[in-house]
């Protein structure tokens, strides 16, 4: 099932403020696709933030922000939970409300998935050198492998973190899987060798329509990261 993205200015009940390449915005797009919800996508320029973005997220001024009938919901995981509650007739992401423990675990592991992105950023930023030489930072590499192994242990033998069903934790973590190639090239590691179960999960996610349509391919992510690294080095 895929969500329908309307053209800007069509007066959609749901409007997503996001920016290209953001894995956190991609989370929301994957969720909307899984639920089959139509929405309008409003691309933002974070270098020159619009009045709409500043009004919608006055605390952080970040994307994603979901506007539902004009009312803003901020932060990607909060948006995912909101979609479950606001649209109960759509396929759920979280476990059933009757299973409070399973829901609490899902929320915990979705938040833990953010560690992949945070560790990964340290990995490819620390590998950046003014002279262009690529040097792996051992501590950042070790930290990344440790985080991936913790996630793999939680996945276990299941198809998805939600079991047989693609659910809340999978939606939260799937956009980060597209960054594995970048982590490998800057960290001197192989996800398939270090965490074969997690690599297989990533491949299953990539074949899912909602993910394939809304998450950038690994090579595209890698090129975007190279552009950002060059910008960081130019500012030193």
TrEMBL record:
It is an enzyme of class 2 (transferase). It comes from the Eukaryota. It catalyses: RX + glutathione = an S-substituted glutathione + a halide anion + H(+). GO terms for biological process: glutathione metabolic process. InterPro entries: Glutathione-S-Trfase_C-like (IPR010987), Glutathione-S-Trfase_C_sf (IPR036282), Glutathione_S-Trfase (IPR040079), Glutathione_S-Trfase_N (IPR004045), GST_C_Tau (IPR045074), Omega/Tau-like (IPR045073), Thioredoxin-like_sf (IPR036249). The keyword Cytoplasm applies. It is found in: Cytoplasm, Cytosol. GO terms for cellular component: cytosol. Residues 12-91 form the GST N-terminal domain. Belongs to the GST superfamily. This is Glutathione S-transferase. The lineage of its organism: Eukaryota, Viridiplantae, Streptophyta, Embryophyta, Tracheophyta.
